[in-house]
Every structure is written in structure tokens, then in C-alpha cells.
Design a protein that fits this description.
The complex is a heterodimer of chains A (203) and B (453). Chain A is mainly α and 203 residues long. Chain A contains 10 helices and 3 strands, in the order H-E-E-H-H-E-H-H-H-H-H-H-H. Chain B has 13 helices and 20 strands. Classes of the chains: A mainly alpha (203), B alpha/beta (453).
Chain lengths: 203, 453
């Protein structure tokens, strides 16, 4: 009796589990030996698109590999986030620039060392051009790179801002960034005295 | 009216060339952690200077987990010590959060020694980068490094210059990737060897030794090492150690690093250099004096590096190779840079026979005497000129024109696959004349481009 019942059970269970069964079939044929958790990855196309929604309503569709440059987004994908990803802290204008950076930095390096060096040089030149933006954009990029956890972009933007502070007097730095000096003359004198050596232009 | 006037005045005051067009102070609005990121890109001195910008910035510089300071940046050593003590002492926690400590210290004999307590304090599970440099200091004044240094588990990069590495029993540096040791004194050979071999992921090692550092035979045994650079430097003037007078007879370097790809000897004066397990070697630089005297040692050495793809040799090395020609076959070598004395040019063709697959050759014809020499005849044509050599560059800063022309024409006439021949001229030579003469030569390769600069 048990043996006779098996085919029915088999068919029933097939029907019951069929969507998953189909996914399994596809995954076996396309992604052999790949132990992937989460059904969102079991699609045939290798360049999956991720949709990002900004705070001001704009929407961007990008390749998964590009999106993964952001550790925040990569973690979300890993934990099974399937649909559009909401990014409340980033506006469309900033995200567009961020995506431009990520797209360029997804490029793989060549096999030999010479290719690596040349590719790195080209990338550095591209970065230098990319970061020629106004103050507002740079700070928005810093905040976005921090929020999205994109190490390279955070480094690049912080270094660019630091270059505006380097080799400048405090007065010049205040002027460049619009920092208001809210020290009283006595307070300022005390701060300078605390580390006299740092303010000495001759040292 | 007054209101609008002061508003305008305020705006004009804020506007500046370059950056802040809006006039809004966006940088101060960033969270502490991000300002700290920005300040990380500056030197410690510059970060300290930001304390005067505004109240917001008063103590931000103290949050940076990096201290990079030279004692010369402060008016005197005591000011240096008190600044560091106050910086390290700051913080609500007792433990140090420093990621990087870099100190370049110049002190006199009488100055107090503080490095030990500083290293002890920062060598916590946070420190990734430690650089201690005493500049030129005499042997007696060398400070002994504390034991806490050798068990700093998170350390990634270590630089120790002009210090004394005392006796230590255990080394636990499981994450150390790069190490640079310059002109230090070691307890003995075994302790330096232990330091190197105990670092399981050490990739990059750069050692500049002094002849009196208590190490005669240096064994570099490392499983992960990919890049090694060694040379012998000098001592401090007070030590009266002159390399010329020193006897290097018993000195040896024994390298066993199966993953080693890049090797540089730059004035490495040990007469015995043995490399085992050199299968991964890709690029070798043999600069300055190679100091190998024994023929057997020389042959073994060059055989052990015969698998490399790229080599750069000084004229001294070329002279050494001359004594053991024919050299072992370097079948994988495609790029070669060699400095050759004019008197040795005659050996060049036979020398090139050892590189059957050579694609690119850079020759540095060094001769600063500018005397007219006998004409050099290069006639023998090695295999690589017939089959693979595509690029030749002649750097000939001090060389006489006839020699240059002979060498250039040798390659132009014989190199079948030559695509580009570059000839560097001195200020005194007439570029157009030389180029005309070169172009008049019969060229074996029809696609050869000749460049004179």
C-alpha cells in the first residue's frame, strides 16, 4: 500500500512545492554547486539589477555588482532584501554621482603587474577629475559615502577636503570653509598657547 | 538700510576663492567621526592647528587615532615628550585607541628615554601601524625596544630605524604584513631570524643593515614573503664603523621564501648569498656591489635566479657575470636593464646569449671619463636579436658619441624584430646630426622606429 501511494504523494508534493521546484531546477542548471541562500539570486541572468530609491523620490536601476560597492547595500542583499532599496539619507543628485563612482570602480584589474600599475594610474586620473566639484557636492558625497559605506569614495572625498586645509593658516581655512571664529580673543590666545609649536611657521 | 548693509558685509567677508561659494559652514556640521577622517589625511601638526578654528574644532584633533610627529617639529625634546604624554593620556578610557604611531626622534644622550612607556601604552589590540625612527644615533645611545612590541597582535606595518632589538623569547605578530628595519642592532642572528620567520603573513621585508649589528649569517625564512629588499648601510659617525675597513668575510645571506616574487640587493655586501625555493621569483634587482667572489657561489646564485622575468643589474654585477660567462640560461627573462662599463661592451653580445627570449633591453652605458677609447666592434649576434628583441633603450649620459653610435648601430643592423630604438644624448651632442646618422644605417627591421632624445 505504501508503494502504491508514493506516486500520488510525489505528484501532490510536486504541485505543492512547484514554484520552489522550478527555482531549484533553474539553479541547478545555471548555478551548479553554488550554495546560495535566498531565492532572489536564483535567476538566470548574471547581471541582476538593483533598484535604489532616493529621499526625493528619484529611482535608479543599477547592476548588482555596482551596487555592492556599497557595503550597506551589499549587506542588505546578503540578508535577502529583494525589492527596491530605500535610501532616505541620499538625494537623487548625490546618488547619481555616487553611482558614477561605483561604476568606474567596479572594473577588474588585468592579470599582470604592468596592467595593474597602468590601470591604477588611469583610475587615479579619473578620480582627480571626478572630484572636481563644488563644496556642497563634496560634503554631500562625504555623507553619502559614509552612510552607504563606500570606503574608496570616503577616502577620496576626505583627502580632497584635507587638501584644502593643508599648508593654510587658520585664517585662510576659516575663509575657505566659511567657519565662524567664535572664540573671544582671550580664548583664542589660550588655545594657541596650549600648542605654541603647531602655530609657529618657522618650525 | 543698516541691516542690509551689514548682511552684505557679512557675505563679502565669507566669500573666498576656490571653495566656499555658498558661505555656509558645511564642514563644521559634519559629525565628529567624519571630521576625524578628514584630519587623518593631515600631519599631526596641521591637525593640532585646527584647534583654533572655532569652539567646535577645539578638541577634534584629539580624536584622531593617529600620532605622526617628529621631535624636530617641536622647539625641544622636552616639549615633544610632554605633548606626546598629554596626547596619549587624553581620553575617557585608560586604554589607547591609536591605530598608528609614527615618531621620528632626535635626542641627545642626556635626554630621558620615553619610547618604552609610549610603546607599552599603545601596543594594544588597536595598533596597526608603528614607526619608530631615531635618525642617526650612535650605538651606545640606541634605545632598546620593549617586549610589548613583539606581541602586538593587530600590527600590520612595523618600521624600526636605529634602535636596539633586544633579546625576546616569543613573537606574536599574526597580522604583520610589512616590516622595515634600518640600521638596528640585534641581540644575535637567531633573534632576527626568529622575528622574520614568526610572522605568518609577512609579505614585504626591507632590511638595511649595519656591519656591526651582531648578525653575520642572516637567514630569511618566510612562508608568505613576496618582496625582499636588502642592503648594508653605514653606522653613525661616532661609531667609527667604516664599511671599507670592515671584514665581511663570514657574512652570509640565506633566503628560503617559496613565495618570493621580488628581490632587491642594493649594496648587499655578504660574499655568500644563497637562495633556495626560488620558483616564484619574478623580478630581481642586483644593484650596487654584489660582492660575490667565489665562482661556485656566483654560478649557484645566478642559476637560482634564472627563472625571473625581469632583471636590473649594476655595472659591478655585470663585471661579476663576465667572470662566469657563459651565464646560465634565463629562459623566462623578457625585460633587462643593465649598466655596462665601456671596456666591457665587448662582452655584451655573448652576455645576451643567456636571454633567448629577451623583449626589452635598457642599457646604461656609463663612462664619466669621456676619453676616446679604442673602437668597439660588436659582431656576434645572439638569439634574442634574431627572434624576440623588440625594444632597446640606450641611456648614455656620460658616454662618448662613437661608442653610442656603435652600440646603436649594432642593434639597428642586427635586431630582426626591433620596433623601437631610443637613444638618450647629452646636452653637448647635436640631436639632429645623430638622428640623421642613425637613420642612414642599414636597418634589419623594417618597422623600426628610432627616437633620439
Amino acid at each position: 500500500a505504501f508503494v502504491e501511494n508514493i506516486p500520488e504523494i510525489y505528484i501532490l508534493s510536486l504541485l505543492f512545492f512547484s514554484p520552489h521546484f522550478l527555482y531549484l531546477l533553474i539553479s541547478v542548471s545555471v548555478l551548479t554547486m553554488d550554495p546560495i541562500p535566498g531565492l532572489s539570486k536564483l535567476t538566470v541572468s548574471s547581471s541582476k539589477k538593483i533598484v535604489l530609491n532616493c529621499s526625493d523620490g528619484k529611482s535608479f536601476e543599477i547592476d548588482e555588482a555596482v551596487a555592492r560597492k556599497s557595503k550597506l547595500i551589499a549587506d542588505m542583499i546578503e540578508s535577502g532584501c529583494d525589492g527596491p532599496i530605500p535610501l532616505q539619507n541620499v538625494t537623487g543628485k548625490t546618488l547619481e554621482k555616487v553611482i558614477e563612482y561605483c561604476k568606474r570602480h567596479v572594473v577588474e584589474f588585468g592579470p599582470s603587474d604592468e596592467d595593474d600599475e597602468e590601470a591604477a594610474e588611469k583610475l587615479a586620473i579619473w578620480d582627480a577629475e571626478f572630484i572636481k566639484v563644488d563644496e556642497e557636492t563634496i560634503f554631500h558625497l562625504i555623507l553619502a559615502a559614509n552612510y552607504l559605506n563606500i570606503e574608496g569614495l570616503l577616502s577620496l572625498t576626505c583627502k580632497t577636503v584635507a587638501d584644502y586645509i593643508k599648508d593654510k593658516t587658520p585664517e585662510e581655512v576659516r575663509q575657505i570653509f566659511g567657519i565662524e571664529n567664535d572664540y573671544t580673543p582671550e580664548e583664542e590666545e589660550a588655545v594657541r598657547k596650549e600648542n605654541v609649536w603647531a602655530f609657529d611657521p618657522n618650525q | 538700510m543698516e541691516e542690509s548693509f551689514s548682511k552684505e558685509k557679512g557675505k563679502c567677508g565669507q566669500r573666498s576663492a576656490g571653495f566656499s561659494s555658498a558661505g555656509e559652514d558645511m564642514i563644521s556640521k559634519l559629525p565628529d567621526s567624519l571630521i576625524s577622517q578628514i584630519l587623518l589625511c593631515l600631519s599631526t601638526k596641521e591637525s593640532v592647528r585646527t584647534s583654533v578654528l572655532s569652539n567646535r574644532w577645539k578638541s577634534l584633533w584629539r580624536l584622531i587615532p593617529v600620532l605622526d610627529l617628529a621631535s624636530s617639529e617641536l622647539p625641544d625634546y622636552n616639549a615633544f615628550v610632554s605633548f606626546i604624554d598629554s596626547f596619549l593620556g587624553f581620553g575617557r578610557e585608560d586604554k589607547s585607541c591609536l591605530h598608528k604611531l609614527k615618531l621620528v626622534i632626535h635626542k641627545c644622550e642626556n635626554d630621558q628615554s620615553c619610547v618604552t612607556r609610549w610603546i607599552d601604552f599603545v601596543a594594544t589590540p588597536k595598533l596597526e601601524h608603528l614607526h619608530v625612527d631615531f635618525g642617526l644615533v650612535s650605538r651606545e645611545c640606541m634605545e632598546v625596544m620593549p617586549l610589548s612590541l613583539y606581541v602586538c597582535e593587530t600590527l600590520l606595518h612595523l618600521t624600526l630605524n636605529w634602535v636596539s632589538l633586544g633579546w625576546f623569547k616569543s613573537v606574536s605578530l599574526p597580522r604583520l604584513k610589512t616590516m622595515r628595519l634600518e640600521s638596528n642592532i640585534y641581540a644575535n642572528e637567531a633573534s632576527l631570524q626568529l622575528l622574520i620567520s614568526s610572522c605568518p603573513v609577512l609579505e614585504d621585508l626591507n632590511i638595511v643593515r649595519r656591519p656591526d649589528d651582531n648578525v653575520k649569517v642572516l637567514r630569511v625564512h618566510s612562508q608568505a614573503l613576496t618582496s625582499l629588499s636588502m642592503r648594508v648601510g653605514g653606522g653613525h659617525d661616532d661609531d667609527e664603523v667604516y664599511i671599507e675597513d670592515f671584514d665581511f668575510e663570514d657574512f652570509a645571506v640565506l633566503i628560503d621564501a617559496p613565495r618570493l616574487k621580488y628581490l632587491t640587493f642594493d649594496y648587499e655586501l655578504s660574499p655568500s648569498k644563497v637562495i633556495s625555493n626560488s620558483g616564484s621569483l619574478t623580478k630581481v634587482n642586483l644593484l650596487g656591489c654584489l660582492c660575490l667572489w667565489d665562482d661556485l657561489v656566483k654560478r649557484k646564485f645566478f642559476t637560482s635566479i634564472s627563472g625571473v622575468k625581469d632583471m636590473n643589474i649594476s655595472y659591478d654585477t655585470f663585471e661579476i657575470i663576465k667572470t662566469i660567462m657563459p651565464l646560465a640560461q634565463f629562459c623566462n627573462l623578457s625585460c633587462l636593464e643593465a649598466a655596462v662599463l665601456p671596456d666591457s661592451l665587448g662582452s655584451l653580445p655573448r652576455f645576451l646569449e643567456s636571454f633567448p627570449n629577451l623583449k626589452s633591453l635598457i642599457l646604461d652605458l656609463c663612462d664619466c671619463t669621456l676619453t676616446l677609447r679604442e673602437e668597439i666592434r660588436l659582431s656576434f649576434v645572439p638569439q634574442c636579436l634574431l627572434s624576440s628583441l623588440g625594444f632597446v633603450e640606450l641611456k648614455t649620459s656620460c658616454c662618448g658619441t662613437p661608442t653610442k653610435m656603435e652600440v646603436a648601430s649594432y642593434f639597428a643592423k642586427n635586431a630582426v624584430m626591433l620596433k623601437k630604438l631610443v637613444l638618450h644624448l647629452s646636452m653637448l651632442e647635436e640631436k639632429s646630426v645623430v638622428l640623421r646618422d642613425l637613420l642612414a644605417l642599414p636597418r634589419r627591421s623594417s618597422t623600426c622606429q628610432i627616437i633620439v632624445c
